[in-house]
Amino acid sequence: MSVIYIGADQGLLNSFFSEWRLKGPSHRLPYTYNTASSALYTYIAALKRFMGDVKIVHFIGQQKPWNLLGSKDPQLGAALEMEFLKTWFSIFSSSVLPTLHPEYAEILRKQMPAAVSDADRQRAWEEGIVDYTGRDSWENIQKRLEETINGEKINYEANHPQHEKQQQQQQRKKCATKQCGFKQTT
After folding, report:
1. Full-model pTM
2. Positions of the region Disordered (predicted)?
């Protein structure tokens, strides 16, 4: 059987798994291991159902996260793509950057796109793509309701892991200069 190499990653996969069409559904990857980042190529109902279980995202076309590094005005696309890109950059920041040479990591960190805007978050919410474990979690919604009722201002980014890490570093600095209120034992 001859294999047609279409190119890129999909062509490479097809060259290794050339008989996937003939072997039936039991030989295909489950949806959560083969999710497309673009709404044009994915089944939206399945995505909404399995969004929390997605393991592998295929960034189709030009919209690759690594192509956005250094972009002055990245075009994040639809809410679906935005959520996957945001997750990619979060994993990249927490798991890849720390393993790189510090100077190179700092260059890449400066090239990363800015945080997702409130308008992008609103659009994602309206399209049914909700960050259930982050800013759109029930806990944060409840805090927002309390803020509105009590007239308070709450920092929602304080629940973000990066913010927690910064707070821990500041606490260590205070303790190193004996300004934290804890006695250091020797």
Report:
1. 0.50
2. 160-186
